[in-house]
Write a structure and sequence with these properties.
- This protein is of the alpha/beta class and 315 residues long.
- The chain folds into two domains: 232 residues, P-loop containing nucleotide triphosphate hydrolases (Rossmann fold); 73 residues.
- 34% of the residues lie in helices and 24% in strands.
- The strands form three sheets. A six-stranded mixed β-sheet has the order 6-7-8-3-9-10, sandwiched between helices. It has a four-stranded antiparallel β-sheet with strand order 2-1-4-5, with helices on one face.
- Strand 9 and strand 10 form a beta hairpin.
- Helix 3 packs parallel to helix 5.
- The longest helix has 18 residues.
């Protein structure tokens, strides 16, 4: 018995965005789909079209042409229905620093029409109070959520935005550079909490990031360049396709090693050690052809960073 096709919560067909007076498209014919419950990452250099794409998918920017469906709703014809299905966390925090964390969340819930307005947390409906406490527990900020936002760390403010973005129970959470400006520990903690949120609520996550180690955790990723899709697949698939194993070599007589590699027409990069591309040869063939005594010899698998840089270089 055949398995049913996965349910797509995001479907994009030939999406184009050209800004007024621009000579080229910011988004240039993107087509892809994101499945329910998936962790999907968008990568690319500055100006690749990541933020423009996210802005279109969250209805804050109008596409020039193409078709987009979010949870079965046509983005152009049903923007209100789309907005009810998505939570958004943009690069720049959008919190009111003069309010407490809970007051920011309450304002969001009222604007979405989820609950009637009440002037204090304790006067809000029991369902609201339970929802806030449950989300605060999952994200590890039960006490901090009642503090003034200006007293919260950058990491806590990001977690507060996630709580706010989940209040209307969206099916998709869009995260545009969510860890930008956070220190390493805050980034690590935020991703730990996002994994808990995904497990607890089954939400689909669509991420843009400059941090490749974050994208490595995704189920699938898409690399954009000049507004076009240049790679799409699992991190393992994307890593394997454009790259291959290489040798990491070094020697006490580095000038001699460099000379031998050059004379034998091996393609290599010198980045501290010598990174020798196999180009169809076996590692044994390369090593056997060298006369210089080696101090370092390692076989390396390509990383996502290797693949990413090569894909962009080939464009």
């Amino acid at each position: 018995m055949s398995r049913p096709d996965p349910v797509a919560v995001v479907e994009i067909e030939n999406l184009v965005k050209r800004y007024r007076k621009a000579k080229v498209n910011a988004v240039d014919g993107i087509s892809l789909r994101v499945e329910a419950g998936e962790f999907f990452a968008l990568l690319g250099p500055n100006g690749a079209g990541k933020t423009t794409t996210i802005s279109i998918l969250t209805t804050t920017l109008t596409p020039t042409s193409g078709r987009v469906s979010i949870c079965g709703h046509d983005l152009t014809r049903e923007p209100g229905a789309v907005r009810r299905q998505v939570g958004i966390i943009f690069q720049n925090p959008s919190l009111d620093m003069n309010l407490s964390g809970e007051e920011n969340v309450r304002l969001h819930a009222i604007l979405y029409g989820l609950y009637p307005y009440r002037p204090a947390f304790q006067l809000m409906p029991a369902a609201y109070r339970k929802q806030v406490r449950d989300l605060a527990r999952v994200l590890g900020m039960e006490a901090e959520i009642f503090k003034p936002v200006r007293r919260l760390s950058g990491g806590m403010q990001r977690k507060l935005e996630i709580i706010r973005g989940l209040m209307h129970s969206p099916k998709i959470l869009f995260l545009d550079e969510p860890t930008r400006g956070l220190d390493v520990e805050s980034r690590r903690n935020l991703w730990s909490y996002l994994r808990d949120v995904r497990k607890e609520y089954g939400v689909t996550i669509v991420l843009t990031t400059h941090y490749l180690e974050e994208a490595e955790q995704a189920d699938r990723l898409c690399i954009l360049n000049h507004g076009r899709v240049v790679a799409l697949g699992s991190p393992r698939d994307v890593t394997a396709r454009p790259s291959e194993e290489y040798l990491e070599l070094d020697a006490e007589d580095r000038d001699r090693l460099r000379s031998e590699l050059t004379q034998k027409h091996f393609k290599f990069d010198e980045e501290g050690t010598f990174k020798v591309h196999l180009d169809g040869r076996t590692a044994h063939e390369v090593i056997r052809s060298l006369d210089v005594p080696l101090t370092t010899l390692r076989t390396r698998q390509p990383s996502l960073e290797d693949a990413y840089l090569r894909i962009l270089a080939d464009e």
